[in-house]
Amino acid sequence: MSDISLSSPGGRETLILASKSAARRAMLENAGVPFEVRVAGVDEDAIKAVSTDLDPAGLAVRLAEAKALAVSRDDETAWVLGSDQTLAFDGGLISKAKSLDAARERLKSMRGRIHHLHSGAALAVKGEIVWSGVDTVEMRMRDFSDAFLDAYLAAEGEALLACVGSYRLEGMGSQLFAAIDGDYFTVLGLPLWPVLAELRRAGVLSA
């Protein structure tokens, strides 16, 4: 872990969230973390294509690091938090559905079964990764009916296409599940507890 420290002119550390995720923004806001948002704009498909050596958890970290670095290299006056999430199911990786029909078929294949969500995060400063980590949650879907699935898709709509698993646990998606084993914040897309610990170390938050 690096000992790099950086102070803004006002004496308080500055944090940038390199993500357009509304869920991640809400988590940090609700935790009282001061930050601004700057979307990284990295080519996730290209990173995945050259990361076949990594397991899903490792890939989540690599994507998070790429986002953090992309913004940090353009702004050396702030700490940058990158985060990403991968979903492992049936021996492979699941990507975001491109249509509601695709989401329907994916959820049908996952019902009554277990999948795993990996949420990676990374902090960068002055173009260097100074911390990264990942947390994993086991998700057990219940054997829901086709009628419930249709009602769910109609209620949630195309907002689901922004979610890697075609569900939002903070919404009606909670009804898709029988149980989860792990941290709720990790499901939402950020390993919040270790991130907060690192932000305290960085001086963004009071210790």
TrEMBL record:
Gene Ontology, cellular component aspect: cytoplasm
Coiled coil regions, renumbered to chain: none
CDD domains according to UniProt: Maf
EC number: 3.6.1.9
GO molecular function: nucleoside triphosphate diphosphatase activity
Catalytic reaction annotation: a 2'-deoxyribonucleoside 5'-triphosphate + H2O = a 2'-deoxyribonucleoside 5'-phosphate + diphosphate + H(+); a ribonucleoside 5'-triphosphate + H2O = a ribonucleoside 5'-phosphate + diphosphate + H(+)
Matching Pfam families: Maf (PF02545)
Gene3D superfamilies attached to this UniProt entry: 3.90.950.10
Cytoplasm as UniProt keyword: yes
Keywords of this entry: Cytoplasm, Hydrolase, Nucleotide metabolism
Keyword DNA damage (UniProt): no
Catalytic residues (positions): D84
Location(s), subcellular: Cytoplasm
Cofactor requirements of the protein: a divalent metal cation
Any GO BP: nucleotide metabolic process
HAMAP family documented for this protein: Maf
Family under the similarity heading: Belongs to the Maf family.
Function: Nucleoside triphosphate pyrophosphatase. May have a dual role in cell division arrest and in preventing the incorporation of modified nucleotides into cellular nucleic acids.
Protein name: Nucleoside triphosphate pyrophosphatase
